[in-house]
Amino acid sequence: MKRASRASYTPGSRMVVTKGYERDVYVSEYAKRRANGVCQLCEEPALFHTKKGEPYLETHHIEWLSKGGEDTTENTVALCPNCHRRMHSLNAKKDVEKLKIVASKN
Question: Can you give the pLDDT at residue 56?
Answer without folding.
Answer: 98
